[in-house]
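Sat 14:20. Reprocessing the chain from the morning session after the first attempt stalled halfway. Input below, unchanged.
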Amino acid sequence: MKRILLCALALVVLLTASLSAYAATAPIADAPYLEDITFSNAAVDGGFAQGKTDFTVTLDNPAQSAVVSGYKISGEASVFIEYLYTSNQQDGVSVTLNFANGSVIYRFMYSNISELAVNGNANLASITCEYGELQPELNERDTVYKLYIPSDLTVLNITPVTADAARCAPR
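Finished this time. C-alpha coordinates:
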Protein backbone atom coordinates (compact mmCIF):
# COMPACT_ATOMS: atom_id res chain seq x y z
CA MET A 1 0.00 0.00 0.00
CA LYS A 2 2.85 2.37 0.85
CA ARG A 3 4.47 1.62 -2.52
CA ILE A 4 1.26 2.47 -4.38
CA LEU A 5 0.88 5.75 -2.52
CA LEU A 6 4.55 6.59 -3.08
CA CYS A 7 4.25 5.83 -6.83
CA ALA A 8 1.04 7.89 -7.06
CA LEU A 9 2.70 10.80 -5.28
CA ALA A 10 5.74 10.62 -7.59
CA LEU A 11 3.42 10.57 -10.63
CA VAL A 12 1.54 13.66 -9.38
CA VAL A 13 4.83 15.52 -8.78
CA LEU A 14 6.09 14.66 -12.29
CA LEU A 15 2.82 15.73 -13.92
CA THR A 16 2.75 18.98 -11.97
CA ALA A 17 6.34 19.79 -12.91
CA SER A 18 5.78 19.07 -16.60
CA LEU A 19 2.54 21.06 -16.72
CA SER A 20 4.17 24.02 -14.98
CA ALA A 21 7.05 24.03 -17.45
CA TYR A 22 4.62 23.84 -20.36
CA ALA A 23 2.52 26.72 -19.01
CA ALA A 24 5.59 28.92 -18.55
CA THR A 25 6.65 28.56 -22.19
CA ALA A 26 3.20 28.98 -23.75
CA PRO A 27 2.53 32.37 -25.41
CA ILE A 28 0.13 34.76 -23.72
CA ALA A 29 -3.27 34.45 -25.41
CA ASP A 30 -4.77 37.66 -26.81
CA ALA A 31 -1.69 39.74 -25.92
CA PRO A 32 -1.62 43.28 -27.35
CA TYR A 33 1.00 43.85 -30.03
CA LEU A 34 2.47 46.64 -32.08
CA GLU A 35 0.81 46.74 -35.50
CA ASP A 36 2.90 49.57 -36.92
CA ILE A 37 5.39 52.25 -35.90
CA THR A 38 6.92 55.26 -37.66
CA PHE A 39 9.87 57.48 -36.80
CA SER A 40 10.93 60.96 -37.78
CA ASN A 41 14.60 61.08 -38.83
CA ALA A 42 14.69 57.29 -39.26
CA ALA A 43 13.33 54.31 -41.17
CA VAL A 44 13.03 50.68 -40.08
CA ASP A 45 15.36 48.61 -42.26
CA GLY A 46 13.22 46.23 -44.34
CA GLY A 47 10.04 47.80 -42.90
CA PHE A 48 8.16 46.95 -39.74
CA ALA A 49 6.98 43.32 -39.48
CA GLN A 50 4.52 41.96 -36.94
CA GLY A 51 5.75 39.01 -34.93
CA LYS A 52 9.28 40.41 -34.56
CA THR A 53 10.57 42.41 -31.59
CA ASP A 54 14.13 43.32 -32.67
CA PHE A 55 14.70 45.74 -35.55
CA THR A 56 17.47 47.80 -37.11
CA VAL A 57 16.80 51.47 -37.85
CA THR A 58 18.77 53.74 -40.20
CA LEU A 59 18.92 57.39 -39.17
CA ASP A 60 18.40 60.03 -41.89
CA ASN A 61 20.78 62.32 -39.98
CA PRO A 62 23.12 60.29 -37.72
CA ALA A 63 23.82 63.39 -35.60
CA GLN A 64 20.17 63.47 -34.43
CA SER A 65 18.00 61.00 -32.54
CA ALA A 66 15.10 59.09 -34.00
CA VAL A 67 11.72 60.21 -32.64
CA VAL A 68 8.63 58.00 -32.61
CA SER A 69 6.14 59.92 -34.73
CA GLY A 70 3.30 57.40 -34.65
CA TYR A 71 2.30 53.88 -33.69
CA LYS A 72 -0.72 51.57 -33.79
CA ILE A 73 -1.45 48.92 -31.16
CA SER A 74 -3.76 45.95 -31.41
CA GLY A 75 -5.39 45.58 -27.99
CA GLU A 76 -5.23 47.50 -24.70
CA ALA A 77 -1.76 48.41 -23.42
CA SER A 78 0.23 51.24 -21.89
CA VAL A 79 3.13 52.36 -24.09
CA PHE A 80 6.54 53.37 -22.72
CA ILE A 81 9.22 54.72 -25.07
CA GLU A 82 12.85 54.99 -23.92
CA TYR A 83 16.14 55.79 -25.61
CA LEU A 84 18.81 53.10 -25.24
CA TYR A 85 22.35 54.20 -24.31
CA THR A 86 25.80 52.70 -23.98
CA SER A 87 28.60 54.85 -22.54
CA ASN A 88 28.27 58.26 -24.18
CA GLN A 89 25.94 57.62 -27.11
CA GLN A 90 22.39 56.72 -27.94
CA ASP A 91 22.12 53.30 -29.61
CA GLY A 92 18.41 52.96 -30.26
CA VAL A 93 14.83 53.15 -29.03
CA SER A 94 12.90 50.72 -26.84
CA VAL A 95 9.09 50.53 -27.02
CA THR A 96 7.42 48.57 -24.20
CA LEU A 97 3.76 47.55 -24.20
CA ASN A 98 2.53 46.87 -20.65
CA PHE A 99 -0.79 45.05 -20.27
CA ALA A 100 -2.71 43.06 -17.66
CA ASN A 101 -0.95 39.72 -18.30
CA GLY A 102 2.59 40.95 -18.93
CA SER A 103 4.60 43.07 -21.35
CA VAL A 104 6.26 43.01 -24.76
CA ILE A 105 9.48 44.93 -25.49
CA TYR A 106 10.38 46.05 -29.01
CA ARG A 107 13.95 47.22 -29.69
CA PHE A 108 14.92 49.49 -32.59
CA MET A 109 18.74 49.68 -32.77
CA TYR A 110 20.50 52.32 -34.90
CA SER A 111 22.64 51.04 -37.77
CA ASN A 112 24.52 54.30 -38.44
CA ILE A 113 25.40 55.95 -35.14
CA SER A 114 27.81 58.90 -35.11
CA GLU A 115 30.55 58.53 -32.55
CA LEU A 116 30.50 61.38 -30.08
CA ALA A 117 33.60 63.10 -28.82
CA VAL A 118 33.98 62.64 -25.07
CA ASN A 119 34.68 65.89 -23.28
CA GLY A 120 35.87 66.20 -19.69
CA ASN A 121 34.19 69.59 -19.15
CA ALA A 122 31.09 68.91 -17.06
CA ASN A 123 30.65 72.54 -15.93
CA LEU A 124 27.41 74.40 -16.46
CA ALA A 125 27.44 77.75 -18.24
CA SER A 126 24.01 78.71 -16.89
CA ILE A 127 20.79 77.50 -15.34
CA THR A 128 17.60 79.20 -16.44
CA CYS A 129 14.63 79.11 -14.10
CA GLU A 130 11.87 81.52 -15.03
CA TYR A 131 10.38 82.07 -11.56
CA GLY A 132 13.29 81.09 -9.31
CA GLU A 133 16.46 82.69 -8.04
CA LEU A 134 19.69 80.69 -7.77
CA GLN A 135 22.07 81.71 -4.96
CA PRO A 136 24.96 82.16 -5.19
CA GLU A 137 25.11 82.90 -8.91
CA LEU A 138 26.48 80.01 -10.93
CA ASN A 139 30.28 80.00 -10.84
CA GLU A 140 33.27 77.65 -11.14
CA ARG A 141 34.08 77.59 -7.40
CA ASP A 142 30.80 76.66 -5.69
CA THR A 143 29.28 73.20 -5.82
CA VAL A 144 26.26 73.81 -3.54
CA TYR A 145 23.46 76.16 -4.54
CA LYS A 146 20.00 77.08 -3.30
CA LEU A 147 17.08 77.74 -5.59
CA TYR A 148 14.49 80.10 -4.10
CA ILE A 149 11.01 79.78 -5.56
CA PRO A 150 7.65 81.43 -4.74
CA SER A 151 5.50 79.45 -2.28
CA ASP A 152 2.54 79.33 -4.68
CA LEU A 153 4.57 77.89 -7.59
CA THR A 154 3.07 74.65 -8.93
CA VAL A 155 5.30 74.03 -11.97
CA LEU A 156 9.06 74.51 -12.09
CA ASN A 157 10.97 74.41 -15.38
CA ILE A 158 14.76 74.36 -15.08
CA THR A 159 17.00 74.54 -18.16
CA PRO A 160 20.67 73.66 -17.65
CA VAL A 161 23.16 74.76 -20.34
CA THR A 162 26.55 73.03 -20.53
CA ALA A 163 29.71 75.11 -20.74
CA ASP A 164 30.80 73.07 -23.77
CA ALA A 165 28.02 73.54 -26.31
CA ALA A 166 29.79 71.11 -28.69
CA ARG A 167 29.53 68.23 -26.14
CA CYS A 168 27.08 66.30 -28.30
CA ALA A 169 28.53 67.15 -31.70
CA PRO A 170 29.61 64.20 -33.88
CA ARG A 171 33.34 63.66 -34.48
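Residues 34 and 45 are 17 Å apart (CA to CA).
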